[in-house]
Amino acid sequence: MVTAKVRAVDGADQPFQAMTIERRDLDTQDVLIEIKFAGICHSDIHTARGEWGPVNYPLVPGHEIAGIVTAVGSEVTKYKIGDRVGVGCMVDSCRECANCKKGEEQYCHKGNVPTYAGVDKYGQPTQGGYASHIVVTEDFVLGIPDNISLEHAAPLLCAGITTYSPLRTWNAGPGKKVAVVGLGGLGHMAVKIAHAMGSEVTVLSQSLSKKDDGLKFGADHYYATSNPETFQNLAGTFDLIINTVSAKIDIDAYISLLALDGTIVNVGAPAEPLSLNVFSLISQRRSFAGSMIGGIRETQEMLDFCAEHNIVPEIEIISADQIDEAYERVLASDVRYRFVIDTSTL
Ligand SMILES: [Zn+2]
Ligand SMILES: [Zn+2]
Predict the structure, then answer these.
(1) In whole angstroms, what is the distance from residue 62 CA to residue 134 CA?
(2) What is the pLDDT of residue 52?
(3) How many domains does the structure of the chain reveal?
(4) 221, 236, 275, 327: least CB-packed within 10 angstroms?
(5) In this predicted model, what pLDDT tens digit does every residue of 10-63 receive, in sequence order?
(6) Residue 226 falls within a domain, yes or no?
(7) Residue 266 domain boundaries
(8) Any bridge partners for residue 143, and if so which?
(9) Which-ligand-closest: CA of 163?
(10) pTM check: above 0.85
(11) How far is the CA of 255 from the centre of ligand 2 (A)?
(12) Residues whose beta carbons lie less than 5 angstroms from ion ligand 2
């Protein structure tokens, strides 16, 4: 077994502390990864604080993981020692159900095995990427293209795929008008990717405070949702809206911005139920949809797409001692645009 240095919380209201955990011995298809960088995702905060249901403590969050392969099991064929690799939001699935067979392991009928706060096939709790090492079965490990640095690759494994997958699924591309609600960790990736796919991109943000950034990331237009005229002027405009905001919003107001056959996709997950007026949908054959990360094949496709189009997230690298402070800054929307932990500081 490998003893990993980690940062963990020991309760919903506890600060992070340095600990060690044991990673399992390598099974025949396992890869041992020395983690170099781990992104901080809003989901980490919800989970660590027990806001998405009870979790077992101590908990090591982190599902935006980038590092180097340092050992491989006897039957591993995809990776070798020294390879630059990543791990995202899941580390296994049943591999037998219809969705797994389609390569949509995130929607596994038996539930995918999340990278942290889950239970693996050995019956052990999974612990995430705020750690020096992790052991993952090779089929759930991604290859990081040469021209993407490890620190930039980390946020792509959640924020990147979470936005890439719905953009692909609902055919963002030339001639399509795409709006992105919220310019945070997810939103800024959605803008960059939708722009690279050739769509006309609009940011809908509470204020215009990040307008210069939004335009720099590839947005063609930028509007403040605090201004009621925005909703009047843009009514019936968009083919696709990606809603990255995980707070409760007036969903009918956003649905009214969709063109005929338009779709609004939620990728953020508010804790409380949303309500909507079905007339908003039927009056223009609109759809209200949701999307969760992406399958392993699509995640690799996203990494290769980002490499080809020179897309990387905007990041702020922090040390392990700054995680608590970073959480508060994420909650205050005071991050441009993703915190990434340098795990050499664990
Ligand atoms: Zn995430
Ligand atoms: Zn399955």
Answers:
(1) 11
(2) 86
(3) 2
(4) 275
(5) 999 999 999 999 999 999 999 999 999 999 999 999 999 998 889 999 999 999
(6) yes
(7) 160-290
(8) 85
(9) 1
(10) yes
(11) 33
(12) 93-94, 97, 100, 108
Contact, 132 vs 20, CB < 8 A?
no
Q: Find the 216 Cα to ligand 1 centroid distance in Å.
A: 24
**Which residue has tokens 């249901």?**
53
Pairing of strands 177-181, 200-205: parallel
Cβ neighbours of residue 155 closer than 8 Å, sequence gap 6 or more: 39, 41, 64, 185, 189, 313, 315, 338, 340
Residues 220 and 319 in one domain: no
Spatial distance between the Cα atoms of 71 and 69, rounded to a whole number of angstroms: 6
**How many A from CA of 85 to the centre of ligand 1?**
17
Identify whether residues 40 and 90 lie together within a single domain: yes
Torsion sign across C-alpha atoms 156, 158, 164, 168: positive
Distance CA 18, CA 269 (A): 29
Provide the residue type at 261 as one letter. Answer: D
What is the pLDDT at residue 310? 97
For residue 272, name the pLDDT band (cuts at 50, 70, 90).
confident
How far does residue 108's CA lie from ligand 2's centre (Å)? 4
Judging by beta carbons within 10 Å of its beta carbon (0-12, 13-18, 19+), is residue 183 exposed, middle or buried?
Answer: buried
Is 88 inside a domain boundary? yes
The CA-atom distances, in angstroms, between 42 and each of 10, 116, 345 are 18, 14, 21
- Asked whether residue 111 falls in the same domain as residue 37, the answer is yes
